[in-house]
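Quick review question:
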């Protein structure tokens, strides 16, 4: 939750440096200042990090409360023990007290001369001097004293460091002082964090720690594997598959730390490698030596096996297809890997800032750098060749070959699990068999930060903090305030006129082999909306539309009724295509009673039925409320955006319950997200209002408790979903060309007997493991029950097509 803001540092020198000895004392005092400022920054960061806060944004008032320890019980604040394990008599109330306790543990005794400290004003932390250098007799002759000033009106903490060096001739201290401002903010260290199961498929990489809070044990010791990770390299060729199967057999038997890699110098982890290297996979009756450390990092992982398999000339690198070498130093070389350009590009363009200087290059497309995908690295307001960092290319970024410089990993960070390893491995599969080793579900190398563990089970709340919809309430409302344009109806009328809006019958989820419901969608095409609120009950399909600024999706938030997802549910006649009610409301007969109004008093089961759904919406337009609702589609929003451009953010009202059939948003086709219009960056109407830009940059997508789908199995190459900031959803599935720069936070915690895991009588149904976040392509056999197996898709024009979309236009 801490980030420092660098400011100018003023160092004021007093006195004339007339002798070399005086100059040395001044230099030592300045050195003490530098040391003190680094120490202060470290301790302030450590103290702030001890306070794990539920509040989404740290404003100046809340920074002051954290400083003094005067925050309320809600939102929750968890105070952690010291990171270095030092003993404390009690946990601190606030950041100031945490600093005091840390500095009290320092040794400042036996100084050459007294350093008088002023009486601290209220809230100030004036730390005792810290000795930095001593004489042979143990006397401190160089020291630093650090003072922390409480947060100002902007929430900034001023740190003052005073360096001391003892002047024997004058028997006094030579001092120098510097000061620096720091700001407190909240950050989430995880790349992905959520309470539901997670599945990470092929051609997906995660850069940052992974936090999986899923530990449902209502039906078994664990109701399904918390994490499923698929190898990026299985399925490329039968021979490579055989090698990888043997490699993962060795991982299951020899890997001691759970990183899915085998250290060549480790007595246990290396014990199978020599034998595997004697195996003949290509049938030439010679050992293939398929498991060598081609990346020279002392480790053999599946990337080494992949490189060794496709490196036909033994030069330690794999040349990519002509499309990916065009414009690089390797253009014209014979390709060695052409089977999967998406995977090749993912690895070759991974870690764009390879020299760590804060400058990242954009995309190289068919030999030309796409400057629109670059950051303004030099700050001149123009994205062009001057923003190029050629050193990153030298270090392997988009150079047309794969080798050790690409530093491949599937997960770059620690994988945290709320569940215990024994809990996972002693659970049972659908046949009643014990699961066994969890690593059979988790493939791909896990490379943590230096000194960190690759996998942590039984993770604490501090390691995998809980996030609920309440944590984002303030940020959601702030973003919604930006949707202050003219009404949706007015914006439509200005562009469409009086002609009736066309409609389309469509299943949800789109393309699913087992639709949960059907919608008669209005279709809005080729329109531009700015700072618009999409009214509840719209349930539309938007095609080739542009959404500028903040797009607000309206919904009725009190959706806690047990029959909420069933009211208005429809089925489709396979012969006529007509829709009909699955549970028609009274006075019609319904196979299932959704509430007491569907039955009669005294009838069997009547008392167990819920009361009718009454809402504070004038549904019948008689001027009074509450009204009974028998069709919750008119209170929710199930939307699909196809080939749309978002120049800004999308945000929704937060429903209390997760109802994936009603509150669902799907992005398909060549959907794009950006903050600057790609072709008209100077057009004020087609770009966000400057006043909204900071809020937009904080999150491209804030959809708590919504079901969100990005892409389909036949997502076109033009799909370019680039999300930034904190991406919030109930559950999210992402496929196709999707990049999240920031943190993906999921809010829906599937609990047996609650929300969608109960029937109309409140009885528990289903399995919490059926609600999962999927990054990449999965089928029903993998646990993604809304999906289809990619291998089963029909080919139309050589392209696998979802459902009945035979011409690839996204329409059924």
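Suggested answer, residue by residue:
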């Amino acid at each position: 939750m801490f980030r420092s803001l660098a400011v100018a540092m003023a160092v004021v020198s007093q006195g004339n440096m007339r002798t070399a000895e005086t100059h040395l004392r001044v230099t030592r005092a300045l050195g003490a200042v530098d040391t003190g400022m680094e120490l202060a920054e470290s301790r302030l960061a450590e103290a702030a990090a001890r306070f794990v806060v539920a509040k989404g944004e740290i404003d100046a008032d809340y920074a002051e409360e954290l400083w003094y320890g005067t925050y309320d019980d809600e939102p929750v604040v968890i105070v952690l023990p010291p990171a270095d394990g030092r003993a404390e008599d009690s946990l601190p109330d606030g950041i100031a007290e945490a600093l005091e306790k840390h500095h009290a543990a320092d040794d400042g005794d036996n100084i050459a001369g007294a350093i008088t400290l002023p009486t601290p004003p209220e809230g100030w932390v004036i730390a005792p001097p810290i000795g930095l250098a001593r004489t042979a007799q143990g006397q401190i002759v160089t020291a630093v004293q650090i003072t922390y000033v409480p947060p100002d009106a902007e929430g900034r903490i001023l740190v003052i460091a005073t360096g001391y060096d003892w002047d024997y001739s004058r028997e006094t201290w030579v001092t120098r002082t510097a000061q620096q401002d720091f700001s407190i903010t909240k950050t989430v260290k995880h790349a992905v964090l959520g309470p539901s199961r997670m599945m990470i498929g092929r051609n997906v990489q995660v850069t940052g720690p992974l936090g999986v809070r899923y530990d449902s044990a209502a039906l078994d010791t664990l109701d399904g594997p918390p994490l499923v990770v698929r190898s990026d390299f299985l399925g490329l060729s039968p021979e490579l598959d055989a090698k990888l199967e043997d490699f993962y057999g060795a991982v299951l038997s020899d890997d001691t730390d759970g990183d899915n890699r085998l250290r060549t110098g480790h007595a246990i982890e290396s014990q199978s490698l020599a034998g595997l290297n004697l195996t003949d996979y290509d049938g030439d009756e010679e050992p293939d030596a398929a498991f060598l450390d081609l990346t020279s990092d002392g480790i053999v992982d599946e990337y080494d096996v992949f490189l060794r398999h496709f490196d036909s000339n033994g030069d330690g690198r794999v040349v990519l297809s002509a499309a990916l070498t065009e414009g690089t130093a390797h253009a014209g070389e014979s390709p060695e890997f052409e089977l999967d350009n998406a995977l090749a590009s993912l690895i070759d363009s991974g870690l764009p800032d390879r020299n760590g200087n804060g400058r990242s290059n954009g995309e190289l497309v068919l030999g030309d750098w796409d400057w629109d995908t670059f950051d303004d690295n030099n700050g001149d307001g123009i994205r062009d060749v001057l923003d190029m960092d050629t050193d990153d290319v030298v270090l392997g970024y988009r150079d047309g070959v794969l080798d050790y410089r690409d530093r491949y990993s599937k997960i770059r960070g620690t994988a945290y699990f709320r569940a215990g390893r024994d809990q996972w491995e002693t659970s049972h599969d659908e046949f009643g068999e014990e699961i066994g080793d969890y690593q059979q579900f988790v493939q791909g190398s896990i490379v943590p930060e230096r000194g960190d563990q690759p996998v942590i089970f039984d993770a604490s709340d501090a390691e995998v903090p809980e996030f609920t919809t309440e944590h984002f309430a303030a940020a959601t409302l702030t973003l919604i305030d930006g949707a202050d344009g003219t009404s949706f109806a007015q914006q439509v009328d200005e562009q469409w006129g009086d002609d009736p809006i066309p409609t389309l019958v469509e299943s949800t989820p789109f393309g699913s082999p087992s639709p949960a419901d059907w919608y008669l969608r209005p279709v809005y095409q080729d329109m531009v909306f700015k700072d618009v609120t999409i009214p509840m009950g719209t349930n539309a399909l938007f095609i080739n539309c542009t959404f500028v600024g903040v797009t607000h999706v309206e919904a009725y938030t009190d959706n806690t009724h047990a029959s909420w997802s069933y009211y208005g549910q429809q089925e489709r006649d396979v012969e006529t295509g007509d829709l009909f009610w699955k549970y028609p409301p009274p006075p019609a007969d319904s196979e299932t009673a959704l509430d007491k109004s569907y039955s009669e008093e005294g009838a069997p089961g009547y008392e167990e039925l819920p009361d009718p759904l009454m809402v504070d919406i004038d549904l019948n337009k008689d001027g009074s409320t509450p009204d009974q609702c028998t069709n919750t589609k008119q209170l929710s929003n199930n939307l699909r955006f196809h080939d749309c451009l978002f120049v800004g953010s999308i945000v929704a009202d937060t429903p209390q319950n997760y109802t994936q059939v009603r509150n669902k948003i799907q992005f398909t086709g060549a959907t794009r997200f950006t903050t600057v219009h790609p072709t008209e960056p100077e057009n004020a109407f087609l770009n966000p209002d400057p006043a909204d830009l900071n809020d937009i940059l904080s999150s491209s997508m804030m959809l708590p408790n919504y079901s969100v789908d990005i892409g389909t199995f036949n997502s076109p190459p033009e799909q370019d979903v680039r999300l930034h900031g904190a991406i919030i959803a109930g559950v999210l599935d992402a496929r196709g060309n999707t990049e999240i720069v920031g943190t993906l936070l999921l809010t829906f915690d599937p609990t047996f007997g609650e929300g969608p895991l109960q029937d109309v009588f409140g009885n528990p149904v289903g399995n919490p493991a059926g609600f999962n976040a999927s990054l990449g392509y999965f089928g029903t056999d993998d646990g993604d029950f809304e999906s289809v197996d990619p291998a089963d898709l029909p080919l139309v024009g050589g392209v696998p097509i979802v459902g009945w979309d035979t011409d690839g236009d996204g329409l059924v």
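Why it works: The chain has a mean pLDDT of 89. The chain has three domains: 2-184, 193-441, 475-556+636-749.
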